[in-house]
Design brief:
InterPro entries: Beta-barrel_TonB, Beta-barrel_TonB_sf, Plug_dom, Plug_dom_sf, TonB-dep_rcpt-like, TonB_rcpt_bac. The chain is built from 10 helices and 54 strands. The strands form 10 sheets. It has a 22-stranded antiparallel beta barrel.
């Protein structure tokens, strides 16, 4: 039963009070430690040494991050903590780490102390990383190669967040940390961060008892400026082109008077977005442990989180620009090379670089126009994770059992308003119909920046006073949401290990896990207005009490002079704190104004709610082996799932609750081998299968059947089965010094049974009629509301119609790559280097690729126009559509991370630079659709970010420190179609500075 401990592991036993080694082997470790010299290390080096020792002793590929002290993980944000690990990249929202990709995949699993967590939406990954403060986490483990006992459900890996175990404390734990964070682009000043912890254990007559309580309260504000310019619907064909649309030859001279001797792209839309998020997060983690004797332990964990993520963003839009596209000639052009898609060269075209957009009242009496948007929303999430269990160690048998429950209740209130500006300039008189009015604009898209604003030099321009006058705005529309999502996961598990002496098979693990997951969602949304006429649009003077000036600091980050800084919005603070009052004032203004009376209705629709209940049974058996230099495990996990999807079926206004059921089962073999080929070198091999269950939203079968026989029915698919993934890992690790390693590994993941959106078409018989049998054996879905016209007998009711849903595709995709890591410090050269021996380095690099799959993107109508014009085709009857493999979103082929640190004489400093290659995403400024990005995701250019921290131990108890995120204020640049092609959007991010002190008592 004795476990061989490495020299590093033995050093760690006395290096830190927060040792995570399991109590089962505590006595063995104590005996072994007597025979080996123990090297004492502290602080940053201690955490790195501890993590390295634990990784080395694992039988499967697992990455470990340990805190230097409670509340002192390498970074403040958990997503950014994980970014330190080889093969992990993250995505950010307004500069805050929110998404994590492990080996290129967003499909990962998040646990706390091995218990499942649930998220705030319809996804499967678990708790949102921004909902949990890093201050209450003592360590993080990322399982890349699963064992048979590893819970199924991830593609990239499983992230387990570990809190402090009180019975492992060697002394009383007490700490308090107070910090303030300041963002360079926000206007609310320094935001507080407070965290603390207390823990201890005691020997009593009944046994050993321990408790740890840790908590944190954080306020954080993050801002980014996101200008966006659309040049998608802005093609101006050359003056010599014969342009045919719908079979008709267009008169170039009349329709496109600014046409040149070359094709060019003008400006179609301008959008200035200031994205602002305010976070208020409260976390509490409590653990109780009781060991009545050396062979038995009971525990209870409680993690309670509450987060309010408030969005307070503004958008200033130049709309209707395309109406005068053919009458405004840019003053300067640039050449845009679109690159290639799937080996097809798209070619180059000229595009507007500088110019103005002037009204042309003879062509359009109210365009281009100006709109002011205030987007005020929130995600309010309360999450709880409770875990109760115990473990017992016998002579040859170890048993642990636990029950856990995770729940997440989320509300997403929002009130987004849009005001239209009515230009009072005498040269732009109103015709009394449309509720917008002509405004001139100027733009300069040079220098890899998207700058634009109102052209105040134009005779058509309004004054600054005009822009800030409530009499010159009207209400266009208000979007309201009161949606809710409730997720829960209740789990029982029992895990056992039977130890075998004097055998190659050292132990057998076996166990059972049952969990019931439930997802309930209610979508409550409504829109007031969408007015288009002045007669329906209340004037701002009728609701002036709600109006405030919008943020005027757009451009502070890059010093741009050209921006829209003077405008009115509905007060976001009032819209958030008292939305009912805002609605009341707006509806009162509508009543006073007259016209179309469109009031809010927040009654859920018949198909607004649905519920998913999923029950899973999992059994596993795993053999652990060791023979000479070979150790590892092999085993199998069998999973059986039953699903019930409950929603409403609406036919001719009649609502019927309907439950659709499905089930599936999978057997998942897994193998891990470690060869200790030398005292300091080991080789790892892992192979196994896993599954990725579909998101709950894809299982939603609430549906309303219409009467149109040609209309496809859109609904979820309760019978959608999980994706399957087969993983292979091989790698080598050389531990060439006490806290040092060089490693290289190769991984490959084959995914099949993919989730794809398809149209399941209803078949036609020889008469051209669709199937009238409700079974719809030939395809499609039975629509009981249809009265056939052309496609069936008009004397009957009901017909099989097309169905659009997600289905499983047998195509295979492959993710593969190499991971390399290096870690070393100079502490062993104390005598030779003196103070310089405090330096160390941690670095990693990942290169990966993705291929396969049958899904693809297709050029939107606007993109098709442009790409055909580049190739000299101007007749839409001869147009060719262009496609590209769908691939993976948020997937970078190359990424690296380098951290240099110094720790000596109470001083600890760290400088970390993270870089990732370009990747495709659908996250663009102001939510641009695929239609406005030519039909393809935008490409976010490669980007590096520099973070730094420094702290000093004033004495044994007091530490003061300073941390900086995004020191160089690295911006985000996005291009349409390919990197460096047509510049579409920017993300101008902030620099965040955190300062404070911690006291340990």
């Amino acid at each position: 039963m004795k476990q061989k401990l490495s020299k590093i592991s033995l050093a760690v036993l006395s290096a830190t009070a927060l040792n995570m080694t399991t109590s089962v082997y505590a006595q063995d470790a104590e005996e072994a430690a007597k025979e080996v010299e123990v090297i004492e290390v502290t602080g940053m080096r201690s955490s790195l040494t501890s993590a390295l020792a634990e990784k080395r002793d694992t039988d499967n590929l697992t990455e470990i991050i340990m805190a230097t002290d409670i509340g002192k993980l390498p970074d403040q944000n958990l997503a950014e903590v994980l970014e330190n690990v080889t093969g992990i990249q993250i995505t950010r929202t307004a500069g805050i780490g929110t998404g994590v990709q492990i080996r290129g995949s967003n499909a990962n699993r998040v646990e706390i102390n091995g218990a499942s967590t649930v998220g705030s939406g319809a996804g499967r990954s678990g708790m949102n990383f921004e909902d949990l403060s890093a201050a209450i986490i003592a360590g993080v483990e990322i399982t890349k190669a699963p064992e048979a006992k590893t819970t199924e459900g991830s593609i990239g890996g499983t992230v387990n967040l570990r809190t402090i175990r009180p019975l492992e404390l060697s002394e009383t734990l007490g700490s308090l940390r107070v910090q303030g964070e300041d963002s360079s682009l926000t206007t609310d000043g320094v935001q507080p961060r407070i965290s603390g912890a207390y823990g201890d254990n005691w020997e009593t007559d009944s046994g050993r008892f321990g408790v740890v309580v840790s908590g944190s309260y954080t306020k954080q504000e993050a801002t980014s400026f996101r200008p966006r310019v659309d040049r998608d619907g802005s093609l101006v064909e050359n003056a010599s082109a014969d342009v045919y649309r719908n079979g008709s030859l267009e008169d170039q001279a009349t329709k496109r008077p600014v046409a040149q001797s070359f094709d060019f792209l003008g400006v179609q839309f301008l959008n200035q977005e200031l994205e602002n998020f305010e976070y208020e997060t409260t976390n509490l983690a409590t653990t109780f442990e009781f060991a009545p004797n050396a062979d038995m332990k009971f525990f209870f964990d409680a993690i309670i989180t509450s987060q309010e993520r408030r969005q307070d963003s503004t958008r200033v839009q130049a709309s209707g620009v395309s109406s005068v596209l053919n009458y405004n000639l840019p003053t300067e052009f640039e050449t845009v090379d679109f690159g290639s898609l799937d080996g097809v060269d798209l070619g180059s075209i000229q595009a507007a670089l500088r110019g103005t957009v002037q009204p042309n009242l003879g062509v359009d009496d109210d365009d281009p126009n100006l709109r002011f948007n205030s987007d005020t929303g929130a995600r309010v999430t309360d999450t709880q994770v409770f875990r109760l269990g115990g473990e017992w160690q016998g002579e040859d048998l170890f048993i642990s059992a636990e029950v856990s429950t995770s729940s997440s209740d989320t509300r997403t209130p929002s009130l987004n308003s849009q005001l239209n500006f009515i230009n009072p300039n005498p040269l732009t008189p109103l015709d009394g119909s449309s509720n917008d009015n002509a405004v001139p604009f100027i733009y300069d898209l040079s220098g890899n920046a998207l700058t634009f604003g109102v052209d105040f030099d134009s005779p058509y321009a309004p004054t600054v006073a005009d822009l800030l006058n409530p009499n010159n705005v009207v209400l266009d529309q208000v979007d309201i949401s009161r949606s809710t999502v409730d997720n829960s996961d209740d789990t029982f598990r029992i895990d056992s290990t039977y130890f075998i002496d004097d055998n190659i098979i050292t132990s057998i693990d076996f166990g059972y896990r049952y969990n019931k997951a439930e997802h309930s969602a209610v979508s409550i949304t409504d829109r007031i207005g969408g007015f288009s006429k002045m007669v329906d649009s209340p004037n701002g003077s009728l609701f002036s009490e709600l109006l405030v000036a919008g943020p005027s600091h757009f451009g502070d980050a890059d010093g741009r002079e050209l921006a829209m800084r003077n405008f009115l919005i509905v007060d976001p603070n009032l819209a958030f704190s008292d939305p009912d009052k805002v609605l009341s004032v707006l509806e009162s203004a509508m009543a006073t104004h007259g016209g179309n009376q469109d009031y809010s209705d927040l009654t859920p629709g018949d198909t607004a709610a649905f519920n998913i209940e999923e029950k899973n049974h999992a059994f596993y058996a795993q053999a652990n082996f060791e023979y000479e230099m070979i150790r590892g495990n092999f085993g199998v996990r069998h999973v059986k799932t039953d699903i019930a999807s409950t929603g409403n079926t609406v036919v001719n206004g009649n609502v019927t609750p309907t439950t659709n059921t499905a089930d599936y089962s999978f057997t998942l073999p897994r193998l891990n081998i470690v060869a200790d080929v030398h005292d300091d070198v080991l080789v790892r091999l892992g192979w196994g299968k896993d599954i990725l269950r579909p998101n709950f939203g894809d299982l939603n079968t609430s549906v309303s059947f219409g009467t149109n026989e040609n209309q496809a029915v859109e609904l979820g698919n309760a019978a959608l089965e999980p994706e399957e993934v087969t993983s292979f890992d091989i790698g080598a690790e050389w531990y060439f010094a006490e806290a040092a390693v060089i490693s290289i590994g190769y991984f490959k993941k084959d995914r099949t049974n993919l989730f794809v959106i398809e149209l399941d078409s209803a078949t036609l018989d020889a008469n051209g009629w669709r199937d009238s049998n409700p079974a719809c054996s030939g395809g499609g879905i039975w629509n009981p509301a249809v009265q056939p016209n052309v496609l069936g007998d008009p004397n009957t009711v009901g017909l099989c119609v097309d169905r659009e849903s997600k289905f499983n595709d047998s195509a295979t995709t492959t993710q593969s790559g190499f991971e390399m890591a290096f870690q070393y410090d100079l502490s062993s050269f104390e005598e030779q280097l003196g103070w310089a021996s405090g330096f160390g380095i941690v670095a990693n690099y990942t290169i990966q690729e993705y291929k396969g799959g049958s899904a693809f993107y297709t050029s939107a109508t606007r993109g098709t126009d442009i790409f055909n014009a580049i190739n000299g085709v101007y007749d839409d009857s001869q147009f060719v559509k262009y496609t590209s493999d769908r691939g993976l979103l948020d997937f970078s082929e190359n990424a690296y991370n380098v951290a240099v640190y110094y720790e000596k004489h109470g001083l600890a400093a760290r400088l970390r630079y993270t870089w990732r290659d370009a990747f495709r995403t659908e996250d663009t400024a102001a939510g641009a659709s695929l239609n406005s990005t030519l039909g393809f995701p935008v490409t976010t250019h490669d980007r590096g970010q520099l973070n730094a921290s420094v702290s000093y131990d004033v004495n044994e108890k007091l530490n003061i420190g300073l941390e900086a995120v995004n020191l160089t204020e690295s911006d985000i640049t996005q291009s349409c179609v390919n990197e460096g092609a047509l510049l579409c959007a920017q993300g101008i991010t902030d620099r965040r500075i955190t300062f404070g002190a911690s006291y340990r008592f």
